[in-house]
Amino acid sequence: MYSLEPTPLEICVSLAERHKKLRKKLSLTQAEMAECAGVSLGSLKRFENTGRISLESLLKLAHLIGRLEDFDTVFQAGDDLSEVEKLFTNQ
Predict the structure, then answer these.
(1) What is the 3-state secondary structure (H, E, C) of 16-72?
(2) In the predicted model, what is the mean pLDDT of the chain?
(3) 23 Cβ partners below 8 Å, 6+ apart?
(4) I need a surface site. Which of 20, 38, 44, 65 has the fewest CB within 10 A?
(5) With contact defined as beta carbons under 8 Å apart, do 69 and 80 qualify?
(6) Would you say the pTM of this structure is higher than 0.85?
């Protein structure tokens, strides 16, 4: 399936790249950030290398760098979901 929209994996990788830049801007090592956020070093390394991380760990990292509120708009009601609803109804 082809799409002009980014894939979930592409978004994960992009988030990881932006996170890594912010971590470096804060002059934190991976070990320092992992410890301060309460995330395992392995999880942080995997995230920065592959984009894969648990939601809870991602939220802990976002909280540490003051970006937790960025998640407030995810899954907000009010979006036009009519096209998505069509995928789940028998037509």
Answers:
(1) HHHHHHHHHHCCCCHHHHHHHHCCCHHHHHHHHHHCCCCHHHHHHHHHHCCCHHHHH
(2) 90
(3) 30, 33, 48, 65
(4) 38
(5) no
(6) no
